Amino acid sequence: MCLENFTLHFSAIQDPRQSAKVTYPLFDILFSSLCAVIAGAEGWSD
After folding, report:
1. Cα separation, 39 vs 46, whole angstroms
2. Contact (CB, 8 A) for 37 and 12
3. Alpha helices in 1-46 (DSSP H)
4. Quick check: is 1 in a domain?
5. Is residue 4 part of a domain?
6. In this record, what's one Pfam family (predicted)?
């Protein structure tokens, strides 16, 4: 999956967080999480 496809598929997801408390955009969090899972992460400490 290329980055453009990932962006297209996940751009419809609404960010429920309060905008004043957002440090990282939702896309960055989702992409980092996907990369971690692909790399074999099994939990938050990985």
Report:
1. 10
2. no
3. 3-10, 26-38
4. yes
5. yes
6. DDE_Tnp_1_assoc
The C-alpha atoms of residue 29 and residue 26 are separated, in whole angstroms, by 5
Of 40 and 2, the one with more pLDDT: 40
Is the CB of residue 4 less than 8 Å from the CB of residue 14?
no
pTM: 0.72
Structure tokens at 16: 């429920």
Does residue 10 lie within any of the structural domains? Answer: yes
Tokens 């992460």 -> residue: 41
Supply the angle between the helices 26-38 and 3-10 in degrees, to the nearest 10: 120
Question: pLDDT by residue (tens digit) across 2-33?
Answer: 778 888 888 889 999 999 999 999 989 988 99
Q: So what's the pLDDT on residue 5? A: 85
